[in-house]
Amino acid sequence: MWMVAGLLVAMLLSLPHPAIANMANPEQPGDLLTEPWTDVATLDIQHEDLVLDLRPVETERLAQINVTYMIKNPGEATTVSLLFAAPGLEKGTVTLDETQAIAATQTDAPNIPEDWGNLNFRQVLQGLQFEVPLSPGEHAIAVEYQGAPSSDDGDFYRQYTLEYWLAPARQWNSFGTLTVDVFAPAGWVTTLTPDLPAVAPEHWQNTFTGLPAEALTVTTHPVVPPFVSFLRVVLPVVGIAIAFAITFWIYRWLGQLSQRQNWSGGWLVLTFLLIIPLSIPLFWALGGTGVWAAESLLDSAHLGVGYSYSRMILFAMGGLVAVPTGPLVAIFSFVMGRVGSRKRKQAIAPET
User: Fold this and answer.
1) pTM above 0.85?
2) How far is residue 330's CA from residue 308's CA, in Å, rounded to a whole number?
3) What's the pLDDT tens digit per position in 4-14?
4) Are the C-beta atoms of residues 71 and 44 closer than 8 Å to each other?
5) What is the CB-side half-sphere exposure of residue 20 using CA atoms within 13 A?
6) Structural domain boundaries, residue 260
7) How far is it, in rounded angstroms, from Cα 199 to Cα 181?
8) Quick one: how far is CA 235 from the chain centroid?
9) 324 and 201, same structural domain?
């Protein structure tokens, strides 16, 4: 009964589920990523190219943001203060007309307008300000930086959500067109709001007239390939089967040896006190190898915190399975070995 119950518990724990996710906070807010705050009421956005590249999330847990603003200054020469709140911009770049690099100075982060709605990020304490000199006419301002998406560990794999807020673009005198490109890691499940048409695998693109929404939201997470799902069922079963087979073979051999050597009395007591208990770590190690092999197929870097905890319980439960199972298999095999050896000796004796 103990063996069956333990095996069932171990198998249930090996299935993907957000077990005991309350042991750690499953939600981690990301960076505030927005259009810049600034006083640009006299300037026109003719076109904006926005690239949200989440492919680096696979290895760095950071997204790459590239934005190019094609603007027009219809008046006299002026200097525009572009204020960003994104922390990753400190290591990024702002370039004017493809040649002039603009230096940044730290300043207080702007207050978040109340009409932006529910923002899923941690409040940023510092901002970065760029002073951009603009002569009359058309100019290109290119911005490149990295930002941390928010994450939700409540499921099997961690879900990453990148929110880019377009709302500050209302400050421009006019806004022409916006081309959005989104890239995601290969093979991951990705959803976009608003929806964008796919132009290639893991690449979505669309051009809008004006602002399509208050914010662009991209959510992506890894998936378990079908062959991995299959092996995660097969390998623990194979590991347990090997544990049964090897434990049975070793202790049957010991039983045969004890019969041939005529172990009795104290030797048998010593065997059951010392040798039989060794079947517990033996069975745990052999059976656990299959579970370990199955779990090693998963992408541990992106496992949700809930499932990470349940994996720890899974390996611990292997010991609970081994405690009753190992000695039972060992005793049964040991006795079988002694009985089999005795019968063979008795079968040979009359002939001699």
Assistant:
1) no
2) 33
3) 334 433 444 44
4) yes
5) 9
6) 2-16+225-348
7) 10
8) 22
9) no
